[in-house]
Input
Amino acid sequence: MVLEKFKLEGKSAIVTGASRGLGQSMAVVLAEAGADIVAVSTNEANLADTEASVIDLGKKCVRVACDLSKKDDVDNLVKKALTAFGTIDILVNNAGIIRRAPAVQFSDEDWQAVIDTNLNGLFRLSREIGRQMIKQGAGKIINIASLLSFQGGINVPSYAASKGAVMQLTKALANEWASKNIQVNAIAPGYFATDNTSDLQDDQKRSEQILTRIPAARWGDPEDLKGAVVFLASSASNYVNGHVLVVDGGWMAR
Output
């Protein structure tokens, strides 16, 4: 039966940025589908709610504090995941930050912070997990891209640059690892109601402009990503490689 292909029983998944918002929702739905979870955040204490939700579903959850810009932290994350579950079947690279300012006022510090987390950290973890998945002979990597992988945005130059690079890196890694039975894909969320977009939601004029452009006429909810992440994490997507799945209420179609 086709629904069997979407089940993740016996699998383990690392989800970065799992303390809230989209990351938390994706960690929980992977547990709903049967996976055990390694929940990652810069602050382990912030993962308590995610852990509780996963455990309530009867699955195991390991909390790990990790600064993805630090190689030692990444090495420790991989070690803890393997110690807990023996294999790493799924990686969801969700951790990301955003800084907002006009380009002429954008500081070097804000530029570097965003690139270090959204791009460098994502590559560093993907490299280490990819190495492990090659040994295992299988794996799923899901990167969280953005509509700004395709568009330039306003007052977010480093975020747009990082997310454009995430899309290209997804394709580059897919090219290298597809023959190793590792599928590397991305999800590009549209405008979702999360902490990252709180400034936009609070700006009445900008919020109205955004909603006017979205055919679905609403902000996305973290629940709206659940089907996409389970599909890309499961055997149902075994012949999907290097794809960027847009989940945006129709924004890119307009």
Q: What stands out?
A: The CA atoms of residues 133 and 153 lie 35 Å apart. The chain has one domain: 2-249. The mean pLDDT is 96.
